[in-house]
């Protein structure tokens, strides 16, 4: 399987019908090249007044890297449950499991003019509020700054703020995302986290969507 060529709108021709995925955009590439991959698509569709996340994983192979091409217009409340199902299927298939295979979200780098990828293999999602006792950074729909209690801070200052507090007992640091924010907004937040909190992200494998 070969590397994707650049397209901001991914087109899929299935059963004679053209379908498209509008990708999120950013101005930086976290990962530029993914070899030996399987594409999975989550389309934005409507039925009456309802929005639907329509999954196409016909070409997915468990032992390969999975690239999820998800329409940027979809809200997290529809996207993440489908991502959870895909993760569970891949993690449960021990017969074909490849320990080196990763999962990536795709997006368009509008500056470099290339398709880029964001790894999320180690992330476990929960569609609920974090329990009490956790130190929660809340990413809200339509807001650039992160909410911590009653204080708004920049994503770049998350660790600085966390380590400036003298805890009697250091709590778990968790990220909570508004379930109604768009997938594009979520990806943009995640890219900033990769940039500013990358050293500690592997220690924060659980993300809450509520």
TrEMBL record:
Origin species: Flavobacterium aquidurense
Name recorded for this polypeptide: Lipoprotein
Superkingdom of the organism of origin: Bacteria
């Amino acid at each position: 399987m070969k590397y994707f060529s650049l397209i901001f709108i991914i087109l899929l021709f299935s059963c004679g019908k053209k379908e498209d995925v509008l990708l999120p955009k950013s101005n930086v590439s976290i990962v530029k090249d993914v070899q030996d991959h399987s594409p999975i698509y989550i389309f934005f569709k409507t039925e009456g007044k309802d929005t639907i996340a329509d999954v196409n994983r016909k070409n997915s192979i468990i032992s390969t890297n999975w690239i999820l091409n998800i329409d940027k217009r979809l809200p997290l409340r529809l996207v993440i449950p489908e991502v959870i199902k895909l993760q569970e299927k891949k993690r449960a298939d021990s017969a074909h499991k490849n320990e080196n295979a990763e999962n990536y979200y795709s997006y368009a780098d509008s500056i470099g003019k290339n398709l880029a990828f964001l790894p999320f293999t180690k992330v476990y999602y929960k569609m609920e509020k974090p329990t009490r006792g956790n130190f929660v950074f809340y990413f809200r729909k339509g807001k650039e700054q992160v909410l911590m209690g009653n204080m708004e801070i920049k994503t770049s200052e998350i660790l600085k703020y966390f380590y400036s507090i003298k805890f009697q007992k250091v709590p778990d640091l968790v990220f909570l995302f508004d379930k109604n924010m768009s997938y594009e907004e979520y990806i943009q937040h995640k890219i900033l986290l990769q940039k500013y909190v990358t050293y500690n992200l592997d220690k924060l494998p659980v993300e809450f969507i509520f």
